[in-house]
TrEMBL record, chain B:
Residues that span the membrane, as ranges: 113-132, 138-154, 166-191, 211-230, 242-265, 285-304, 311-332, 338-360, 381-398, 418-439, 478-497, 517-543, 568-588
Residues annotated as domain NADH:quinone oxidoreductase/Mrp antiporter transmembrane: 132-407
Protein's UniProt name: NADH dehydrogenase
Organism: Streptomyces griseicoloratus
Pfam family, one: Proton_antipo_M
GO biological process, one term: ATP synthesis coupled electron transport
Keyword field: Cell membrane, Membrane, Transmembrane, Transmembrane helix
Amino acid sequence: MTAVLHVLPYLVAAWVFLAGAYGLATSRNLIHAVGCLSVCQAATYVLLLAVGYRDGATAPVFSDMAPGTRPVVDPVVQALALTDVVVGATVTALLLALVVQVAKRHGTVDPDELTELRG
Amino acid sequence: MHRLLPLLVAVPLLGAALLAALGRVLPRVVAESVGCAVSAGTAALAVVLLPHSSPPLVEWAGGWEPVRGYGVGIVLVGDGPGLGMAALVSLLTLAALAYSWRSFDEPPHGHTGAFPALMLLFQAGMCGFAIAGDLFNAFVWFELMGVVAYALTGHRVEEARAVQGALTFAIVNSLGGYALLMGIALLYARTGELAMAEIGRGLDAGGPPDALVLAGFVLVLTGLLVKAAAVPFHFWLPDAHAVAPTPVCMLLSGVMVQLGVFGVWRIHGTVFSGPGGLPAGDVERVLMVLGAVTAAIGALMCWYQRHIKRLLAYSTIAHTGLFLLGVGTLTPEGDDGVALYVIGHAGVKAALFACTGILLDRFGSVDEHVLHGRAGALRGVAVMFAAAALGLAGLPPFGTALGKSVTEEAVGGPLTVLYVVVSAVTAGAVLRVAARVFLGLGPRPREARGEDAYETTGNGEEPETEQRLVRVPDTMTAVPALLLAGALAAGAVPGFADAVARAMSEATTAGLVHTSVHWTPVGIVLGLVSTLLAVGLAAVAVTRPELLAPPARALPLRRLQSGHVGDYVAWLLVGTTVLGVLALPAVLTG
């Protein structure tokens, strides 16, 4: 049982990533596609936090306990996840701005109808 | 000296912040001059640091050095290749900013600083990636240069094609970036380290590679190869390069794509080359297969284009394939050759884009068929365009020719033919454009109809200048001339190639293995053969167009480039699977 629980977060991360990629590949609406990209990124959060998890450990905040008195989860991956959130916010904002421009210039947000660049 | 290393990133970042903050009030001339000065200063800093890179400069940012072998700080590594890439990035940024100096379209009121600020931010991201010694930081710089590149590609937001190309570019590259991050997370899970060298040591301590190391390798490689535009991760590149403003194209094709190859080389060398990484034979198989397919498809698609920027974009893909082949030999000779090839290619390709930009601003089109015979008056541009095409083919003494001959020798065997043919086909396509556009040779190509018309024409592109140019500004002609001179000097200046080889050997083997890089008779002959082949192909294409026109068989290949972002994402997943399958024997036999 514990073996399953140890592997589960990694399987969830892979599944979330693939679900987002499937949504991207079959998307009929660019705003939906940007959302799917965020889903793919959510997989990286899950993976990062799963990597730093320790049984019976608490949050790495030392304001109310002395360092070394009890185990804490890995703070490095939390810092990475935080950076990752910032990157994701930037990318999503820029992508949505581009989608707004696509809607204005092409009059559609359906990727099937964008046929100017091909061949 | 190592204390100066962070300045390579900090100076352009601060310059960008300054321009973004003061852009409202600064007159245009001042904003653009500040941009040029900051990028020039960074370039000078990189060039000054280069001679001190042996042994490599190492800086733990903020003084967070490792304690008892465990580090949580961020390390910057200024070795020869890293600083060399930073210098190349900075010089090319300077060239691109000088090219657009005062001639570019008047920015909207209150946004004079926006374009130079974005270019400086792009430079900072690329320099940061070049000197990153920490895997997570490499990811952050990778994303920064990505995000800025999407914004720059879609800079002309009024244009329908520009925003579409930028969106495709952004989605595919971001997805690649997330794959890279997942790979990094897996490597951290195994080793508890983020500095590249430490991860490598951690993997070696863990014994032979297992499924987790393989997954980390495949995911990291996916991210880097998306940036390097290797087949089948390449579909975003032609769509983005065809629509980006010309100075941005110079940077995208000249250095950003090559930074992907650099990342493959750096991360393989520091993380995966030990006994705990992947066996050399498997890495070689992955890179060789992908490189060969990339080179072949890039060259073929390059030949079929009529949109000149798109044609150049495909030639970049073809050459990236050749770079990957060279890196895939995993030999010092291959590394030296690719380093020289990248330097020469950057000058030549940026010069070609600069000349194409002049055509766009003068005639309002970048279509080979529409421009037929119209640019006869631009003699200087014609000479530079043709010279750059010959450089692309590998005519001695261009730096591309020396790099190509060294790489060819390292790769050896039947793949030499691929080098000769690919460089000849891409250069032949460029020469064909030159003959038609500048000299008006041959019959005007007939317009394809119906099913044949599955192509992107270069007509209807908006000039990037305020109005169509009547007289070409001196800056716009001086920049490609200087870039060509640089590409020529990379091959012709005695001692330059040896300096590059020394820097590479210092970085990979701590200077223990010295390779000598020089012109060989075989290399010169092969360079001349590809040049002659390119001229011959162009001559046949111009005089008897029907002989080399795209056959109906080629249509399925062209249909793959559908412009549909969903298709490209599906291909990315296919590519990741292929990488996994190619590298699988590493864990099955281990």
